[in-house]
Amino acid sequence: MADTKPGAAVIPAPGQPRPSRHEDVYFSASDGLRLHAADYGRHDPATRGRLPVVCLPGLTRNTRDFHDLALILSRDDKAPRRVVSFDYRGRGRSGWDKDPSRYTIIVEAEDVLSGMAALGLEHAIFIGTSRGGLIMHVLAAMRPAVMTAGVLNDIGPVIEGAGLAQIKAYLSRTPRPKTWEEAAQILAGAHSKSFPALTDADWADFARAIYVEKAGKLVPDYDPALLDGLKGVDLNTPLPTLWPQFEGLGTMPLMALRGEHSTLLSDQTLTEMKTRVPLLQTVTIPGHGHAPILHLSGIPQILRDFFASVDKQRRH
Prior knowledge:
This protein is of the alpha/beta class and 316 residues long. It has a domain at 19-159 and 240-315: 3-Layer(aba) Sandwich (Rossmann fold). It has 10 helices and 11 strands.
């Protein structure tokens, strides 16, 4: 059962804008850990009857990555949708696990299912960024019926070792900022070559999604023990692939987004994905790396068009 932070959502009067706020929802994992989700449009009658959208973030990321996209989708004039994004255990507003060995994709997939049950979501369109897309691969084998359609954001069944090495190096070596301005500058310095499309304002927003202020200091918004799992990864040997699970995802409407400068999802893998699942829709996002920021560069309209095609297929 879920509990919500009161007063976060408002039902609009006819002709008024959709709600600009969301509900912070808390629920229990199967092991009792308290987990968090952000729920947009839950009480808006205009979202009823449409497939909701479930958003799954990357390795160390949180629900704030999807906030702007969720506002766009839940307040859409023509087809507003309920949008739910999840903080995995050890991230954002979810509790930290006392046993870091449980920071795994399988456990996190189970947590997503617990959250969907608590929120009354039987099935949804899924958007998975990076690790979130890997969780979708696991759900394809574990509980495929919960996914009516899916969007893989810069992730596929093959993870490039070079891209994972970059993520590992960034997470372990990035200096800690003292101010929000410095945080934006650090992020731009580390990623601007991969994300030339971003403006100074975008980097400032990016910082607010990644860092949180605790005891007067800016720190990444995740349990540091989460990175223990990366220490044992041998990047000199090929990483395991997930082709059977990907082909399981291919039984539903599926889209893959790739950042133009991504080092985690290669052009070769994207081509092979299209070969194995011919109905896969693929879009390369110019000016973005790993992973495209979903409320920028026209991506919301790409997603809305895909969702509309899913709705049309369901009606027929």
